[in-house]
Specification:
By secondary structure, the protein is an alpha/beta fold. It contains 28 helices and 17 strands. β15 and β16 form a beta hairpin. The chain is globular and about 80 Å long.
Length: about 700
């Protein structure tokens, strides 16, 4: 394939090979094309692929980078391409290759999110007193754990000096707990719970998601010779979406990059995950630490000049950003962003739906249109109008297939093959066999911990009832069978009555659904889709080809890694996208409607001064007005041709009603609101129903 033609700024960035560089790449600036071309040229000029490392924020970005580079170099040979990973998958590989340096043993397995919740909930119940439980509920406990992990702090870290030996670490922990609103009286109890949690993971030889970076970072710091060896291998490193890295990810990177042949590509204006630990300040830290060359990719190739100009004025109001000046040229200005003011939410929904209906009728594909919002409940306001006009749409939920019960069962079996002492996986799988109760299983787990034996082997050493022994025997045979089974056909093992025999358990799990048969079929489909994902990861359905490239143990490790690659995008549909801004980063549309550009919705006003929970709904997530401004900036810059911003003076939520004023963000964009007369009466019945419900509730309240 011929070289990609780059503009002068992109060309400057692509030519930087040696030394540190910070590429400030704005929305629609072609950063992926630039980074791909730079890497391709390096490979063509003689750099060995083994010496190049490309790190990204998400699995989706890593897959896109891999596909582009493969096409650019016209090769299907994986060995001809550099290592391309996100930070967590890279950390997982480091952990597997050096488990003892990461405070684990060979065969380490990855807990799923449900396991983490269950274990922390159990410890919270067993170790907390009433005052602690009231002030620090389980959800808050999980948030504190995630905050500490994102800082690389593991309570009970075997490498960390504690107390007076490490005052900086102590002060950092105290500052983080204070910022999370944890009263000093609870610090001791919190320390006990999280230390026990870490101890239990070590005994079970498991890790959670946060450990995937925190443990390798601790190991690299404790073993400089390991870091030096890694640095010797990866002589050139590129980091994409660098504004979304957290502090421990950046710290881990710097442990093996003292050669400073590092290129950081990002845009602090598009950092919308600060609430989840992202530190856009990492860009400034890298610039200051390394005196990096700075290249600004400011030309937006996506949006019209009028949209880019409005968005640029808006984001320029952020005071802590690195200065840059986005612009667009070489195309017509296009219509300026349109600010529409509506009397209520139903009128807003009708106006949006009518506009979309007319656009579709004029020939614009539904999939080229998006309705974006800040708070999830706006979707409920929009849907009746979309349905009334027959508009195909899908609400982007970002559902993680690996968090479904059937997927967790399947991956639990894989975990137990790789790590026979994974107590949480064994507990999960016990439901596949009748007769293995909690007490019997706990006896086996306890014996396993004391004598360092596989859990299922301990059935021979503890006193079990005949039904419990038979059940443990059956489970052991299932796992032994899986160990010999071809990994590319994992679903067949699960559904083989002589092997996994998942059917009865899946039917039991589906009983409580409104439509049990439909739910059962959906669970079977999930099992099959995971097998398809496995084959897609290996690029073949031929087990022989996979065996020729990887050992069986390596294959099972890769299958486990798929849980890190849970779909971060949904299958493309010819339908209008209805989504929060968080769901569409990196995407673009012909027309974007922003619903709810109102003070209190965008920017969002939190219902309390408490810090956000890491796993709370996205519409309660962002922590400050600058991050809120970045969210609206990202929303606006998804639009290629048309941007329509909507405000409603009042919105019925079905059981409540809120009144709003137009958002100041629209003023920053230079928008002038125009009042829009309600269009049509589609959805009016829904509005009337809301009014009736509101009146009934009010009458009931007055009669009490």
């Amino acid at each position: 394939m011929d070289d990609v033609v780059l503009d002068p700024q992109q060309e400057t960035a692509a030519q930087i090979v040696e030394g540190p560089a910070l590429i400030l790449a704005g929305a629609g600036a072609g950063k992926t094309a630039t980074l791909t071309e730079r890497t391709a040229r390096m490979l063509e000029s003689g750099h060995h692929p083994e010496n190049l490392l490309m790190l990204t924020f998400s699995r989706k970005a890593a897959r896109e980078m891999y596909a582009r580079l493969r096409d650019r170099l016209d090769t299907q040979d994986r060995k001809a391409l550099p290592t391309i990973e996100n930070f967590h998958s890279f950390g997982w590989k480091l952990l597997q290759s050096n488990p003892t340096r990461c405070q684990r043993k060979s065969g380490v397995s990855l807990m799923d999110a449900n396991d983490q919740k269950k274990e922390l909930r159990r410890l919270h119940k067993d170790l907390a007193d009433d005052a602690f439980r009231e002030d620090v509920p389980v959800k808050k406990l999980m948030t504190v754990h995630d905050v500490l992990s994102n800082e690389g702090i593991i309570l009970g870290d075997q490498y960390a000096r504690t107390g007076d030996e490490n005052p900086e670490r102590r002060q950092r922990i105290m500052a983080l707990l204070t910022a999370q609103g944890i009263r000093r009286a609870h610090w001791g109890r919190l320390n006990d719970i999280l230390r026990r949690y870490e101890e239990n993971k070590r005994m079970a030889n498991t890790v959670d998601f946060g450990d995937l970076v925190a443990l390798p970072a601790a190991g690299l710091s404790a073993y400089p010779e390991w870091a030096a060896k890694l640095e010797e291998r990866f002589t050139h490193i590129a980091v994409d979406e660098a504004q979304d890295t957290n502090r421990i990810q950046y710290a881990m990177l710097r442990l093996f990059s003292s050669h400073n042949n590092v290129i950081m590509v990002g845009d602090d204006d598009q950092c919308i995950y600060e609430w989840r630990g992202a530190a856009p300040s990492n860009l400034r830290t890298f610039r200051d630490e390394t005196e990096a060359a700075i290249v600004r990719l400011e030309r937006n190739y996506r949006s019209t000049p009028s949209i880019v100009s409005a968005a640029a004025r808006h984001i320029a109001c952020n005071q802590t950003r690195i200065e840059k000046s986005p612009y667009a040229e070489g195309r017509a200005d296009g219509d300026p962003p349109d600010g529409q003011q509506h009397p209520d939410g139903v009128a807003m929904a009708n106006a949006i739906a009518q506009d979309i209906r007319e656009a579709i009728d004029s020939g614009i594909s539904p999939k080229r249109i998006a309705i974006l919002y800040r708070v999830n409940k706006i979707a409920r306001v929009l849907e009746p109008a979309l349905i009334a006009r027959g508009i195909p749409y899908h609400i982007a939920q970002g559902i993680d297939v690996f968090q479904t019960p059937e997927a967790q069962l399947l991956m639990g079996a894989v975990r137990l093959v790789q790590n026979p002492q994974d107590s949480m996986a064994a507990t999960k799988l016990a439901q596949l066999v009748k007769g293995l109760g909690e007490r019997s299983l706990n006896d086996m787990i306890g014996y396993s911990v004391i004598h360092d034996l596989p859990i299922l082997e301990c059935r021979q050493h503890v006193k079990l009832s005949k039904p419990a022994f038979a059940a443990a025997e059956r489970l052991s045979q299932m796992i032994d069978g899986l160990a010999q089974w071809p990994p590319l056909y994992l679903a067949e093992w699960a559904l083989d009555p002589e092997m996994g025999g998942f059917q009865d358990t899946l039917k039991e799990l589906s009983k409580t659904a409104d439509k049990p048969k439909t739910m059962y079929e959906r669970r079977l489909t999930t099992i099959m889709s995971i097998e398809e994902a496995i084959q897609g990861r290996f690029g073949t359905s031929d087990q022989g080809k996979a065996d020729a490239e990887y050992s069986r143990s390596e294959q099972w490790e890769i299958v486990q890694e798929l849980a890190l690659a849970a779909p971060d995008e949904e299958a493309e549909q010819d339908a209008v996208t209805v989504a929060t801004v968080f769901r569409v980063k990196g995407l673009e549309y012909h027309t974007v409607h922003i619903a709810g550009m109102s003070d209190g919705l965008m920017p969002m006003r939190r219902s309390s001064d408490k810090p956000p929970m890491f796993d709370e709904d996205e519409d309660e997530a962002a922590q400050n007005v600058e991050e809120e401004r970045r969210l609206s900036y990202v929303a606006a810059t998804r639009a290629r041709e048309r941007l329509v911003v909507h405000h409603a003076d009042r919105i019925h939520w079905g059981y409540d009603e809120d009144f709003f004023t137009p958002s100041g963000f629209a003023d920053e964009m230079g928008l002038t609101w125009r009042e829009v007369e309600p269009v049509g009466d589609a959805g009016a019945g829904v509005s009337g129903s809301r009014e009736i419900v509101m009146e009934a509730l009010q009458e009931a309240a007055e009669s009490e």
